[in-house]
Amino acid sequence: MEQSQKGMRHVPEKICIAMSGGVDSSVCALLLTRAGTPCAGATMVLGTPEDEANVASARAVCEQLGIPHEVFPLAEEFRRLVIRPFLDEHAACLTPNPCVTCNRTIKFGAFMRRAEEIDCARIATGHYLKVGHDDGRTRVMRAADARKDQSYFLSRVPRSALSRALFPLGDLSKPEVVQLAAEAGLPSAAREESQDVCFVNGSCADFLRERLGTRPGSIVDGTGRVLGGHEGAHLFTIGQRKGLGVALGHPAYVCAKDADANRVVLGDAASVQVDTVRVRDLNWLAEPDGSAFACQAKVRYNMEPSACTVHVDDDEAILTFSSPVFAPAPGQTAAFYDGDLLLGGGQII
After folding, report:
1. β-strand partners of 279
2. Other Cβ atoms closer than 10 A to 117
3. Structural domains in the chain?
4. pTM value?
């Protein structure tokens, strides 16, 4: 006989919290447990120098909050889906963003699948981001704290994944998060944030030299005149000004790289100001209003969205900016906005 649902108490689904051991994910767990949400913490082991410390810190927070803690061994997936593409794209003279890749493939990919294995239908993270639901559609919004907003890094995560995620810090500022952690006596309250690429121990250039080696080539100006030499075009970034190894008596910037010729091209400030950018591998979090529309876009994390017109052609788009933007680098991410609403993103080509 089928059991009647009348009078049965609704049991909230369990949430798996991605816990790095830092203050943001710790306060994420604090807020969910205070709200009475059934949850478990889980820390990814990625084969990075910080793994052991991350697990220990996250486990201590979970013990204090009285929730279970899991360890997800994802080093192989991380190597294959994040580190290997990072190296391959640098070798091709692109400028990848490993945090964007990690969010798409690991945190909202492999981590989500592991969470399902411990009976968690949804995950929560300490990202500064807001997600709402309107008429059954997921709407992704910039965080209240514009200085910490991380919507750019999640612009290429599929909407289906973000619809299954919670972001408790979206309405909080960083000082408020730190204060909550301190008041609760969380062990991670005073832990320093990691600022660099998590799998690089030292400088990125040294990491690339170690993994990809060196390949001497020429530094030239826009006419092809040789200005100096370098150890490999893959060690430079579009827009780079420092560490060029040449003294010209005036500011110079990397304005182009040629992987085949292993050549780095320098130019003046005007040469790295661009008003048209091509993007591929489009990921839409809100359906575009036709094949041509106006919005704002970011071509790097640390810039304010700039007004542009987008023309979409299948899985590619051309962005035409109202005012030139500085040094959009092939391989990086472009994120599209309508005010605070995140429309989606793609890879700059």
Report:
1. 317, 348
2. 10
3. 15-184 (3.40.50.620), 215-267 (2.30.30.280), 273-348 (2.40.30.10)
4. 0.91
Q: Are 255 and 270 in contact (CB under 8 A)?
A: no
Nearest by Cα to 165 from 28, 267, 70, 69: 28
C-alpha to C-alpha distances, 75 to 83, 95, 111, 113, nearest whole angstrom:
10, 23, 11, 15
Cα–Cα distance list, 207 to 124, 199, 218 (Å): 32, 9, 21
Helices then strands, counting H and E runs in the chain, come out as 9, 17
Per-residue pLDDT tens over the stretch 46-99: 999 899 999 999 999 999 999 999 999 999 999 999 999 999 999 999 999 999
Residues 6+ apart with CB under 8 A from 88: none
240, 230 Cβ separation under 8 angstroms: no
**Best CA proximity match to 27, nearest among 230, 149, 147, 170:** 170
Instruction: Please report the pLDDT score of residue 12 as a whole number.
Output: 62
- State how beta strands 217-220 and 316-326 pair: unpaired
Task: Record the tokens describing residue 104, joined without a space.
Answer: 């798409």
The residues that are catalytic are 102, 198
